[in-house]
Here is the input.
Amino acid sequence: MSGKVAVTDTREIEETASRFVIARKDGAQWSDEQQSVLDAWLAQSPLHRVAYLRLDAAWSRTDRVRALRPTSPRPAGDENRLRKFSVRMAAGVVLLAGIGFGLKELAPAPAVSTYETAVGGRETLRLADGSEIELNTNTRLRTAVTRERRMVWLDKGEAYFRIAHDPAHPFVVNAGERSVTVLGTRFTVRRDPRALEVSLIEGRIRFDAKDEPAHMPIDLAPGDTVTATPNAVTLAHVSKDTLDTSLSWRRGVLVFDRTPLYEAVRELNRYNTEKVVIADPQTAQTTIGGTFEATNVAGFVRVAHAVLGLRVQYRPGETVISQ
Here is the structure.
């Protein structure tokens, strides 16, 4: 296979994925150029990756079946004929798998369910495939998850994912122009107007951004965090303690350790309709530490006043902190 592949129809996606799988598995003719074409096609859409991984798994299952069959001595001339027959049989299985998937796609699409949390709210979703998703404050998530297709869209906010392992049906999290493809793992995705952040706790995931094709996709290892802004995508590795701190919201608390006050207030304001306002740059750079209940503005303000010696002024709907 060569040239640029651009496919939008589901049936065509399955047929293209089948051809890639068959060409790659069928011997020594697979070249670096063909691999580059495949990589580019996979990067175009999460649907391409889902189709390819599913059909690749179908091929692997046929290999395992052949390996389990008893063998017996064969004339030397039969070996090539047997290999060609096996390749045709495996290719048939892959194509049938693709056709079957395409036919299922002609049926009504799985229902899309929408879940939202209020400011300060949290909710745990248990999906049909056994996966769990914990929604953080002010989050909206849409799901279309069945045994055959696992797809969600994070429209805003933050979620912690514990995904059931299923190599034949990858789990895809879409966030605008970016996506995360999962086989089975634990990770978080946070989306706000400033940036998208993905952190891997356990397992393996693949991050993809259509607007950064030159650097995509990125395979994450546990402890890796990808931060995508409108201008750049960066990858960093953080400690387990840092990851645990970032997940403190699952216990209903926020943990700060010599954190600049402007960062702490920005995080606190995500969980509360009554906002904290910092009056001046000097106050913004003051550092704060401790564990705070996420929805307890009064407790946070008391510490700012009593421990940091800052002034507090109460206004309708907001509290102003200053020197």
